[in-house]
Design a protein that fits this description.
By secondary structure, this protein is α+β, with helices and mostly antiparallel strands. It contains 11 helices and 12 strands. It folds into 3 domains: 45 residues, no CATH class; 99 residues, no CATH class; 162 residues, no CATH class. The strands form 5 sheets. Strands 1-2-3 form a 3-stranded antiparallel sheet. Helix 10 packs across helix 11. The N and C termini lie close together (8 Å).
Length: 396
């Protein structure tokens, strides 16, 4: 589905011993990796490419004149500085450059502006793999977990222990917090809460979960994980129906085979799902469910594969068009990753790491092409862009 820089990065992690062998890993639908190895490989690839890297720098403002961005104002320990440029790519995830420059953006789902819940993955060690609950034992543990939620011993419960990085370790995706990713108070409260929730999970597992009596926290992230906020308004927009229809486009610059995976904007999790769709099992239902039911995506919890209706049809993929990467307002502004031009449902499919890497490679290549000319990303020849991407191993 991806290739290109993403494949290069994953192969480098495998060479370091920080990821499964690439050709084996891609057949499983996801690539397990160690975050520390990921950091090192990213540093090395960026520096080897001759990039002038600046860490610890935030976009404080943008200088826009005559309908173009002329410079970004960065804030860091060195103070406030202006960085000039011909073309700019917003890869902030939250469309910070888009917002600071005055370009148009949308926020969350159309009806109420709510966004997917935040959360953080964490790595657990001390797992006795041969003792983990299966069959009837797993069902019994599920009942204990649901009771623990009722008793406020744990705030939410996701029955999955996540992927295995090494024997005895698991990368767990279980915490949830509702809020606005662009609001510093929500970010602060969310980060404190998910750290507390992580330790509550550990204590609960030690007491109640088969195979987890000796578990301990190995690693938590620096920041809370964010799923959705602003989306740049682009020349084109990808919508949820494009996902399930596996829509192909002549101006495709990236592929996505992921599904409409909407983590409940209320932060609610039942033991069998975290999703927001028409068959949501949460009781009582939320106001959105009651007032905007027809706007929810389809899924069938009673079927053999409840998520089938949320996936691209026939095991295929949907295309990301070049126009979704280009600002409709500022010709020298592109976006990459989850803040490109997508609606709430399509964003839930394109926001994950693999597609974001593919979109990032396309945005970077397009920016380089635009910089060779007058800086207008809107004037980039898509056929040439596709040819360059293919020559560099991207799947287009």
């Amino acid at each position: 589905m991806i290739g290109g820089i993403a494949e290069e990065l994953c192969r480098a992690m495998a060479d370091l011993g920080a990821a499964a062998p690439y050709d084996q890993a891609v057949t499983t639908g996801g690539i397990r990796f160690e975050p520390e190895g990921f950091k090192l490989v990213c540093d090395e690839l960026v520096l080897e490419a001759g990039i002038a890297l600046r860490l610890h720098s935030l976009v404080a403002d943008a200088i826009t004149e005559d309908g173009r961005i002329g410079a970004l104002i960065l804030e860091s320990k060195s103070g406030r500085e202006a960085v000039l440029g011909k073309v700019f790519v917003d890869a902030t995830g939250d469309a910070d450059v888009v917002a600071r420059s005055g370009a148009s953006f949308t926020f969350g789902r159309e009806a109420d502006g709510r966004v997917e819940s935040m959360g953080s993955m964490f790595v657990v060690g001390g797992v006795h793999e041969d003792e983990l609950a299966t069959g009837n034992q797993a069902e019994a543990f599920k009942e204990k977990a649901e009771q623990a939620v009722e008793e406020d011993r744990i705030r939410v419960y996701n029955r999955s222990l996540g992927s295995r990085i090494r024997e005895g370790q698991r990368a767990v995706n279980a915490t949830r917090f509702p809020g606005d990713c662009t609001n510093v108070e929500d970010l602060t409260h969310g980060e404190i809460q998910v750290r507390r929730d992580t330790w509550d999970f550990i204590n609960f597992w030690r007491e109640e979960a088969p195979g987890m009596r000796d578990c301990y926290v190995l690693e938590t992230p620096t920041n809370i994980g964010l799923r959705e906020s602003r989306q740049m308004v682009g020349l084109e927009r990808v919508v949820g129906q494009d996902v399930v229809d596996a829509r192909r486009r002549d101006d495709a610059v990236a592929r996505c085979s992921y599904w409409i995976d909407i983590h409940c904007p209320m932060g609610r999790v039942k033991s069998n799902t975290h999703l927001c769709y028409k068959d949501c099992p949460n009781d009582p239902p939320c106001p959105f469910y009651e007032e905007h039911y027809d706007e929810l995506p389809d899924a069938d919890l009673e079927g053999d594969n409840p998520r089938a209706a949320l996936h691209p049809r026939d095991g295929l993929w949907f295309d990301i068009p070049y126009g979704a990467l280009v600002s409709a307002d500022l010709p020298n502004l592109l976006a990459a990753g989850r803040c490109i031009s997508l609606d709430h449902q399509a964003m839930a499919a394109a926001r994950v790491m693999g597609p974001c890497m593919a979109i990032g490679q396309a945005a970077g290549e397009a920016a380089a092409m635009a910089a060779e000319g007058d800086g207008d990303a809107q004037d980039v020849e898509v056929c040439e862009l596709q040819q360059r991407l293919r020559s560099n191993g991207a799947a287009v």
